Amino acid sequence: MKEVFNGIFLQIKICPSARGDWLGFEEKASCKAITINGCMGTIMLLAETSACLTLSLLNDAGYLAFCESDLVVIPAMVLLANISGRPVFLDDPTYPHDGHIILTHCTAPRRMDGRNREPARILIHFESDYGAAPKVEMYKGQILKNIIPDFQVSHYLGLKSTIVDHPFMDICRSQIDISFNTDSHLPAKRMQGFHWMTGYGDYLKETGYALKRIGID
After folding, report:
1. Which residue among 42, 77, 114, 168 is least crowded, i.e. fewest CB within 10 A of its CB?
2. For 3-29, what is each residue's pLDDT tens digit?
3. pTM for the complete prediction?
4. Where are the chain's structural domains?
C-alpha cells in the first residue's frame, strides 16, 4: 500500500475496498479526505471490484472521498462541502444546451441533503462493466449549486440549477438532468476542467465570498 500524505489528503494508489480499512488510515494521517488514482487499473486487479460504492459510502459517513485524483476540482469539493455541511457530488458534465445539462458519475453520495438516504440501485461500473456502482436518484425539483473550476485555479464559475430528471442513459450510473437560467453558451465556454462539483442548496453568495478571500475570481 503506497500512500502520500501532504497534510490535507491521503492519496491511496491502491484503494481499500472496505470502509473499515479507510478509518484506520484516517486516524493515522489525521485527515478527513481521501482521493484515489488508477480507478480502473491497479484497484480493480487487487480489490476485485471498483472503488465507486466504497467512495459513495464514505461520503455518506461524513468524509470527503474522491475518485480520479483530480486536484483541479477537489479544492472546490472541499470548499462546497464545508460551506454546506453536506456531502457533494463530483461529476462529469455532458454538454449544455437549451438551459439543460446532464451531470453524471459513478460515486454519488446518497445523503446529499446531509441526513436522508435517497433511492438508489446498485449496478456494475459503467466503463469497465465490473464491480459495484450506485445509481442514486436525486430528488426532482432540488435546488443545486454547481462549481466549475478552471485548470489555472484562477476562475470558478458558479451555477444555480434545479434537478428535473434522473435519466438512465449509457453513461456513468448516477445521472441528473438539470435546468438553469443562464445562457447555455456561458457554461459551455467556461468548461475548462474535467469535472464539476455539485451540492444541494444555493450557496452562490457564500462561495463567492470565500473565493475572493483566497484570490480566485
Report:
1. 168
2. 333 333 333 333 444 455 656 666 676
3. 0.85
4. 3-213
